[in-house]
Amino acid sequence: MADEGLVPWRQLALGMAMPEAGSAKRFNTGDWRGKRYPVTDRDKCIKCGLCWITCPDMAYLPDESAEGYYKWDSYYCKGCGICIAECPKQAIEWREEKEEDKYGPACGS
Amino acid sequence: MARRVGLEVSLACAEAAKLANVDVVAAYPITPQTHIVEHLAELVADGHLDAEFVPVESEHSAISACVGSSAAGARTFTSSSSQGLALMHEILFIASAMRLPIVMAVANRALSGPLNIWNDHSDIMAERDIGWVQTFAENGQEVLDLMLHAFKVAEDKRVCLPVIVNMDGFLLTHVIEPLLMPEQAEVDAYLPPYQPQQRLDIAQPISMGMVGMPEVYTEAKKASLEALLGSYDVVKEHWAGFAKQFGRQYKPIESYRSEDAEVLFVTMGSLGETCMTAIDELREAGVKVGSVRIRLWRPFPVDDFLAAIQGAKGLIVMDRALSPGVPAGPVATELRGLLYAKGYHLPVQNFVAGLGGRDVTRADFRMMLDKARKAFAAGGEMTCEMVGVKE
After folding, report:
1. What is the domain-level CATH number for residue B272?
2. CATH of the domain at B109
C-alpha cells in the first residue's frame, strides 16, 4: 500500500490538535455537491437574509459589493437546497452545473 | 492528619472531588449515582467548593460539557450510571481521542431492559473499549482513594487520558462506611493544581477534535492506544506516591490467600469482599482456595495478572454482566483469550452472578467452587453458568 503523505503516529500532536484556528476552511466541502447549485435572482430577492441564516455550511455571506444581498460561495455549498426551500420569495433556483463551472464565479448571478 | 469518619460512600466520592478542587462539574442525576451529584451541587451552592456546576439536560450533554471544559483547561468531573453512561457512549470515545483528563465516577448498575436500578456491571462492560483508564473500587475507602488517584493519573502529562472509577451501585454508593478522610493539605501535596498540556485559548488558538481522514485515522488510534498502554506505569507510580502520602497501598491486581491456592476466584469490585469471607471459611475447612481481584481494568495489567495466578490449577472467573451469544461473560472471555495467547493451559470456569442486584452470597461461592472443582477434575470443557437462575 502506498503510504505517501502518511504521518508517523508518534509525530501526531496530542489528541491530534492543530496549532491554528479555522483550519476547516481549507476543506472545500463544495466538492461534495452534486450536479446542481442554487442561483439567486436578485430581482426577486428582498434581502431578508434567510439563505444566510439557514445555510448549514455558511455558504452565503453578506455581499460587500452589493449592500443587503448575500453572496453564494461555491467552495462550501454542498447543494443541500435548504436555501431554496426557505426563501420566502422563491428567488433561489437550481441550476445544472457543468464541470467547468465547478469553481466558477462565486456569486448567485 | 486524616480524620476517621462514618460517611455514605457517595458522599465520600463527592468529597474526593471537592478535595481535588475540581473547577467544573457537569452531571445529570441517575440512580444510584444521584447522591454524588446532589452532594456536589450542594457543596457548590453553599460556597464550600469554588466550581462551576453545570446542571445539564442529559448525560450526553453532561459529557459534552465536560469535553468542552476540559479542553478549556479546567479540572473536570462527572458521574453517571447505567442508562446515563450508555447515553454518553459516543462522546466517551471522543474524550479519550482528544486526550482530555476528565474524571468520572460510575455507580455500576444494570442496563434496561427490563428496567432495573440495581447493581451489576453491564453498564461498564458495554464501555470497555472507550480508551479510558478504568479502575474498580472494592469498598468506600477505595472509592475515595481511587478518585484522588484518578485525577493524578489523568492529568499526568505522560497520560492525558480520561479516567473512570467504578463503584458498585447501592452495594457501595449507598452504604455508610468508616473512612479515613484526608486533610486538604495532604491532598494538595499529592495533587497539585492542574497544568494543561494544551488548551483552548483565544490568544493562542488551536483546533481540537479534528476530522481524521483515512490517511491519519489509523495513526491517531495507534497514538491513543499507546497512551493507554503507557498509562500503566504512571498508574502504578501514582499508587506508590499515594502510599507515601496517605499510607495505603494499591496494586493493579490484589491477591488474597493465593500463595498455595489450587483454585483462584477472579472478581472485580465489591464482590471481592464477600469472596474473601467465603475463602476464610473454605480455608478453615482445609480447601486450598484464594482470590485475585482486578482493580485496574484498563489498561489490563497482563503481567500482574499472570504473576498473580502462578501455581493455580484452575480459575473461577466471576462476571457481573452477560455477553450474549458468546460462550462466556466479558471478563472470562477476555481472560481465556489472554491465557491462550500467553500459552497457558489453565481451565477457566465462568459464573455470571449478581445480575440486576441479585445477591451473591458466601453459599454461592461454595457452590461455584464445588462445581468448578468437579469440572477441573473431570478435565472437561470450560463452561459459563448463570448463577441462581430459577428453572
Report:
1. 3.40.50.920
2. 3.40.50.970
Which of A6, A7, A9, A29 to substitute to test the interface with B, most B CBs within 10 Å?
A9
Calculate the average pLDDT of chain B. Answer: 97
Q: How high is the ipTM of this complex?
A: 0.89
Nearest to B301 by CA among B266, B352, B271: B266
* Residues A56-78, mean pLDDT to the nearest whole number: 94
Q: Does B391 fall in a domain?
A: no
In chain B, the residue whose alpha carbon lies closest to the alpha carbon of A3 is: B215
Domain, as residue range, for B175: 3-246
- pLDDT tens-digit series, residues B74-108: 999 999 999 999 999 999 999 999 999 999 999 99
Which stretch of DSSP H or E encloses residue B168?
strand B163-168
* Residues on chain A bordering chain B, Cβ-to-Cβ distance under 8 angstroms: 5-10, 12-24, 27
Which residues, at least 6 apart from B78, have a Cβ–Cβ distance to it below 8 Å? B25, B26, B27, B62, B63, B66, B102, B103, B104, B105
* Whether B242 and B285 share a structural domain: no
Q: List CB contacts (< 8 A) between A8 and chain B.
A: 219
pTM over 0.90: yes
Question: CB A23 to CB B207 under 8 A?
Answer: yes
Is B356 within 8 Å of B386 (Cβ atoms)? no
Query: Residue B197: closest CA among chain A residues belongs to which residue?
Result: A14
Whether A103 shows a pLDDT value over 60: the answer reads no
Here the cell at position A59 is: 455558504
Q: Which residues contact B384 (CB under 8 A, 6 or more apart)?
A: B319, B327, B328, B329, B332, B350, B351, B352
Residues B310-321 as b or e (16 or more Cβ within 10 Å = b): eebebbbbbbbb
What are the tens digits of pLDDT across the range B10-26? Answer: 999 999 999 999 999 99
Cα–Cα distances in angstroms (integers) from residue A46 to residues A8, A72, A81, in the given order: 53, 16, 19
C-alpha to C-alpha distance for B87 and B96, rounded to whole angstroms: 16
In-domain check, residue B38:
yes
**Residue B62 and residue B78 in contact, taking contact as beta carbons nearer than 8 Å:** yes
pLDDT in the model for residue B349: 97
**Considering CB atoms only, which of B99, B207, B216 is closest to A7?**
B216
Q: Compute the nearest-CA separation of A81 from chain B (Å).
A: 25
Instruction: Tell me whether strands B24-26 and B76-80 are parallel, antiparallel or unpaired.
Output: parallel
pLDDT in tens, B210-233: 989 899 999 999 999 999 999 999
- For A25, nearest residue in chain B (alpha carbons): B207
Pick among B160, B206, B231 to test the A interface (most A CBs inside 10 A): B206
If asked whether residues B258 and B242 sit together in one domain, one would say no
Q: Which residues of A touch B99 (CB under 8 A)?
A: 14-15
CB B48 within 8 A of CB B211: no
